[in-house]
Each structure stands twice: as structure tokens, then as C-alpha cells.
Amino acid sequence: MTTDTHELILLRHAEARAPRGKQDDFDRVLSARGEADAERLGTWLRQQEWIFDLVYCSPAARTRSTLASVLPFHALDARLLPDLYLADAGTLQRIANGIPAVGRALLLAHNPGLEQFANALCGWSAPRALPTCGLLRLRREADGTARLIESWQP
């Protein structure tokens, strides 16, 4: 980290449909509930008037669809990182450590890694669940830890 603090937003993709037949997990699309949740989150984010300096997204279909619904104006400039697909907490930590010092960055990825990463980063003794389309707004500290500022869930 090159600054004392910045915000890191962790977003779990919206609910996806169960795989159909031999459909690959990577290609799963959002369910009707997932689409509705993503639209609600998008409305909430617009009300917050947040500016995202960087957006990192898993290239899986369900994360890209979530991004398109939640932050449509970032769908084209998001950095699709293959390492975010089903990333574990250690991989997410490595990616987060490589994010340039900016005001606000978003990581859109998958569980269980995203939830485990948030719990480790914040040092929560009682693990917190991150539901589909759940968002955590964290402030990164100079010592590498983070604290929860706010959360949103459907």
C-alpha cells in the first residue's frame, strides 16, 4: 500500500441459476432473483453517488452480469481478472495488495473466498456471512487490516 487508507468494496455476485446439464460453472447466468437483487443494489449505489476509481471483476458470466446490472457505466472499463474466478482468501489478498492507491476500488468475486478474505482482513473472530449480491465497504489501513464502514445485502 502506498497510502495510509483507501476504500475497498467487496461484492459477491448475485444469485446464479443452477448449472444446466453439462453447463460449465463458469458460464452460469443470474437467476431471476439474482437479476432483481442486482438491480436493487444498482439503485442503492446510484443513491450513494459513489465513484469507483478501479473495478476488478471475475470473468465468469454471473459476475459480469452482476457488474452490468449494478454498475453499467463500469461494465466496459472493468478489469476482468481470471485469478478472481473462485479465488481463495490468499489469492484475493494478493490481488488487493496489488491495487494501486486510489480512493475506492471494487472487487467483484465469489464465495467462499470473498467471505473468508473479508473475515481475515477485518480480523473478525466470529465469521460474517456474505450473501449473494452482498456488499462490504471497507477502509484499508496502513497496517494491511481493514474495518467495516457499511454493508448492503438484498
Give your account of this protein's structure.
This protein has one domain (6-152): 3-Layer(aba) Sandwich (Rossmann fold), CATH 3.40.50. Helix 1 crosses helix 2 (61-70). It has helices spanning 32-48, 61-70, 89-97, 113-122; strands at residues 6-12, 54-57, 79-80, 104-109, 135-140, 146-152. Strands 3-2-4-1-5-6 form a 6-stranded mixed sheet, with helices on both faces. The chain contains 4 helices and 6 strands; from the N terminus they run E-H-E-H-E-H-E-H-E-E. The mean pLDDT is 92. It is α/β, with parallel strands linked by helices and 154 residues long.
Ordered list of secondary-structure elements with their pairings:
Blueprint: E1 6-12, H1 32-48, E2 54-57, H2 61-70, E3 79-80, H3 89-97, E4 104-109, H4 113-122, E5 135-140, E6 146-152
Helix pairs in contact: 1-2, 3-4
Task: Supply database-style keywords.
six-stranded mixed β-sheet, alpha/beta, Rossmann fold, 4 helices
User: What number of domains?
Assistant: 1
Q: Can you summarize the main beta sheet?
A: 6 strands, mixed
- Kindly provide the name of the CATH class: Alpha Beta
**What is the CATH-assigned architecture?**
3-Layer(aba) Sandwich
Number of helices, counting only DSSP H or I runs of 4 residues or more: 4
Query: What would the principal axes of the Cα set say about the shape?
Result: globular
Order of helices and strands: EHEHEHEHEE
Q: Give the assembly state of these chains.
A: single chain
Short précis:
The protein is α/β, with parallel strands linked by helices and 154 residues long. It has a single domain, classed as Phosphoglycerate mutase-like (Rossmann fold).
